[in-house]
Amino acid sequence: MLDSRLLRSDPESVARNLARRGFTLDVEAFRVLEERRRRWQVEADRVRAERNAHAKNVGMAKGRGEDIAPLLAKGEALTAELARIDAELTRVQSEVDQWQLGLPNLLHESVPDGRDETANVEVRRWGEPPRFEFEPRDHVALGEKLGGLDFEAAARISGARFTVMRGEVARLHRALAQFMLDLHVREHGYTEIYAPYLVSPAALLGTGQLPKFEQDLFAMRGERDFYLIPTAEVPVTNLVRE
User: Fold this and answer.
1) Of 6, 54, 146, 215, which is the most exposed, with the fewest CB atoms less than 10 Å away?
2) Please, what is the average pLDDT of the chain?
3) Entry pTM
């Protein structure tokens, strides 16, 4: 999500930046929505201050021995009015949040303008791609030929987008993960972390997977909703959230 303060203070600059990637930001629609939010916020602050001041008056009247029944009735009315206003403010704030969640990130000045990867610019290259006297196979074809990747079995067990690893391929998979962890913990100052594979929707909002990429995620619906993490980025980033 973009910084709300930047959107409120300078929506035109945000619109110009997003236009570089082919995205049209409706500045006027945002201003209308933000004005609604601001009006309800000001009204909530006003009624809350009035209720607090009124509560002090009730206390002073009670100390003087006066009849406070009318004051209590007014206090209840102010509380009810504040609840109504807060509900409206929450509804409008939710609209603002959902609107902002649909906005793409701002582009750094070094990024070329363009709608997609076809506008990318090659900055540098290192080495030369190897040349083969045969047609090279990708890892999926090699894994299936060696009997190490079994997509058919995985589809029967779990459905699409899964695979069963067997034999040396499974061993290689385990060894590479262990090698990577040991190398970076021992030699590069990293801390090994075992984080949850299931996270709340809030965790995925914080890392940008929700709401835009919800269709790509595996969800678990119940008393509490969970999602399977797509990468360790999600739980590790959320360790320092807020």
Assistant:
1) 215
2) 93
3) 0.67
